[in-house]
Amino acid sequence: MWQGRTRLLAQNTLPCDVRQMVLEAPELVNLAKAGQFVHVRCGDDYDPLLRRPISINRLDPVQGRLTLLYKIMGHGTEQLSRYGAGDYVDIMGPLGTGFALQGEKPLLIGGGLGIAPLLALADALAPRTVTMVMGARNAAGLICHDDFADVCGGLHVATNDGSAGYGGHAPVLAEELFARHGHDMIYACGPVPMLRYIQQMSARLAIPCQLSLEEFMACGVGACLGCTCQPAGEGAPYKKVCTDGPVFWSGEVILHDH
Ligand SMILES: Cc1cc2nc3c(=O)[nH]c(=O)nc-3n(C[C@H](O)[C@H](O)[C@H](O)COP(=O)(O)OP(=O)(O)OC[C@H]3O[C@@H](n4cnc5c(N)ncnc54)[C@H](O)[C@@H]3O)c2cc1C
Ligand code: FES
Q1: For the whole model, what pTM was predicted?
Q2: CATH number at residue 8
Q3: Which atom in ligand 1 lies closest to the alpha carbon of residue 79?
Q4: How far apart are CA 157 and CA 170, in angstroms?
Q5: Count of domains for the chain
Q6: How far is the CA of 215 from the centre of ligand 2 (A)?
Q7: pLDDT tens digit string along 15-63?
C-alpha cells in the first residue's frame, strides 16, 4: 500500500456532472489491480477528517497515471471538485481486493457510475472478448461510452427511458445476451437492486459472478468495522467491504439496501 501526495494532471467535467480526475501516481499504479480503490483526502485542512473511497477507473502503467470518476454527493466530493490541474491530492492505496480475471467470454454489467471500476477491468481482461452492458436512466447518463467501445468486443446500452439502446434495465438486457453468446463469467457494479437481480441471474444460469460493492467507510483498512456486510453462510463472520471486498463472489454476500 502506498500513501502520498499525487499531482493532479486534469480535473474534467463529464456528462451528468460526473468529475474525472487524472492523477500522476506511478508507485500506486504499479501496485494496483482492477477492482481496487483509493482512499482520498478531499481537503488540505483535514476537513472532512475522513478520507473518501473512490474506485480505480483506469490505470495507465506506462505513464504512471490513475483515473478516478466521481459524483458530488456531499462535503467531501464537493471539496475534491475544487482541486485543479497542478494541485496535489493525498491518496492512499491501492486498497481492497481486485477482480479475479477469468473466463474466455466475460460479460460486464455496469449501472450508472457503477461503470467506474469496469473500465480498468475491461483493460485487464484483454485480449479476451469482453462484452459490456452499460445501463443508465437516459442517454445523457452513459458515461465512458466511447472508452468502453474502444476496449470491448461488444458494447450494449440500456436506458430506463429508452432514449438510447434497449429500453429497460441493464441486467434484463444482459440476460437476453446470455442465450445468444454463452458468456462464462459475469462482473457487475451498480445499484443494489441491480446487483441483487444479477446475483439471482448468476445462480439461475450457474455462471460464476463477481460483484463490486459500495459501503460507508471510515478507515478503509479493516480497523474500524464501519463497512461490514452480511455473509451468505449461516454463522459466517461479517465481511468488511474495505478489505474482504469491495469485490465479492456473488454467492458470498447478502445484499441490503442502504
Ligand atoms: C469501494 C468504494 C468505491 C467507490 N467508488 C466510487 C466512485 O468511483 N465514484 C463515486 O462517485 N463514488 C464512489 N464511491 C462512493 C463515494 O465514496 C461516496 O459517494 C463519497 O464517500 C461521498 O462523500 P461525500 O463527503 O461527498 O458525501 P457525504 O457527505 O459523506 O454523503 C452525502 C450523501 O451520499 C450518501 N453516501 C455517501 N457514501 C455513500 C456510499 N458509499 N454509498 C451510498 N451512498 C453514500 C450519504 O448517505 C449522503 O446521503 C465508492 C464507495 C466505495 C465504498
Ligand atoms: S472502513 Fe474501517 S473496517 Fe472497513
Answers
A1: 0.96
A2: 2.40.30.10
A3: 26
A4: 7
A5: 2
A6: 9
A7: 889 999 999 999 999 999 999 999 999 988 888 899 999 999 999 999 9
